[in-house]
């Protein structure tokens, strides 16, 4: 398949915006995104747009009509695995990205093998139990890898309550840390996107060697 622009043209365009050394580091970045819903799909879009070179997309689920209120999918994607749908969208932004997908549910058993090639892991699950399992597993098996997680972004409360906090040397948490989805107070595009942007920006800082929030 022919592309409208060469890889060098895209790299040069990004470097004009970001600077050559910044873009070189972004191109070397290896980031896993576990969960490709409202958080994960928005994180992936942001990282693809700035040219993060190696993305690892992990999710077991298919796109549902109810996902379209906050996730980076379209009606034609309903019923398609999120890994396939998101990969196709990201390659429309930059066809030269290295995008690896795993259409699986992350478990305590498969976690060590799934994340061994990634430098930074983004936790982007909906369920609290899954979040806790991933965070504990990464900190146990890969204590030297950077981990960025999300907690608290439901409803339409103040955007200013969402923040990034450094929990420990390699663990960062984004969100308001309290707001959970409830009937009539669910996950909505604007506030979820704010939290996703916090995660994506923290990942960007880590790729560039900035470890403070």
SSE topology sketch:
Elements: H1 7-18, H2 20-28, E1 30-34, H3 38-49, E2 54-58, H4 82-93, E3 98-102, H5 111-114, E4 120-123, H6 128-141, E5 146-150, E6 163-168, E7 171-175, H7 189-207
Parallel strand pairs: 1-2, 1-4, 2-3, 4-5, 5-7
Antiparallel strand pairs: 6-7
Q: If you had to describe this structure to a student in words, what would you say it looks like?
A:
- The structure is a single chain.
- The protein is α/β, with parallel strands linked by helices.
- The protein contains 7 helices and 7 strands.
- Helices cover 38% and strands 16% of the residues.
- Strands 3-2-1-4-5-7-6 form a 7-stranded mixed beta sheet, with helices on both faces.
- It has helices at 7-18, 20-28, 38-49, 82-93, 111-114, 128-141, 189-207, and strands at 30-34, 54-58, 98-102, 120-123, 146-150, 163-168, 171-175.
Compact summary:
By secondary structure, the chain is an alpha/beta fold.
Total of helices: 7
Structure summary, number of beta strands: 7
Name the structural class: alpha/beta
Element pattern in H and E: HHEHEHEHEHEEEH
Which residues sit in consecutive blocks of at least 5 with pLDDT less than 50?
A: none
Average pLDDT metric: 97
Please give the share of residues in helix.
25-40%
- How would you describe the shape? globular
Radius of gyration over all CA atoms, rounded: 16 Å
């Amino acid at each position: 398949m022919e592309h409208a622009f060469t890889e060098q043209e895209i790299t040069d365009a990004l470097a004009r915006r970001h600077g050559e050394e910044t873009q070189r580091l972004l191109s070397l970045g290896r980031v896993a995104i576990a969960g490709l819903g409202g958080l994960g799909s928005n994180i992936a879009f942001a990282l693809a747009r700035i040219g993060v070179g190696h993305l690892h997309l992990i999710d077991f689920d298919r796109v549902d009509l109810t996902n379209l209120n906050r996730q980076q999918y379209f009606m034609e994607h309903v019923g398609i695995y999120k890994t396939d749908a998101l990969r196709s969208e990201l390659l429309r932004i930059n066809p030269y990205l290295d995008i690896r997908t795993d259409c699986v549910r992350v478990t305590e058993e498969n976690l060590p093998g799934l994340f061994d090639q990634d430098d930074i892991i983004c936790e982007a699950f909906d369920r609290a139990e899954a979040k806790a399992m991933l965070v504990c597993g990464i900190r146990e098996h890969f204590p030297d890898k950077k981990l960025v997680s999300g907690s608290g972004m439901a409803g339409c409360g103040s955007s200013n309550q969402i923040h990034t906090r450094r929990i420990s040397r390699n663990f960062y948490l984004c969100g308001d840390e309290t707001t959970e989805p409830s009937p009539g107070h669910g996950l909505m595009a604007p506030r979820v996107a704010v939290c996703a942007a916090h995660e994506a920006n923290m990942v960007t800082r880590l790729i560039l060697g900035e470890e403070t929030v």
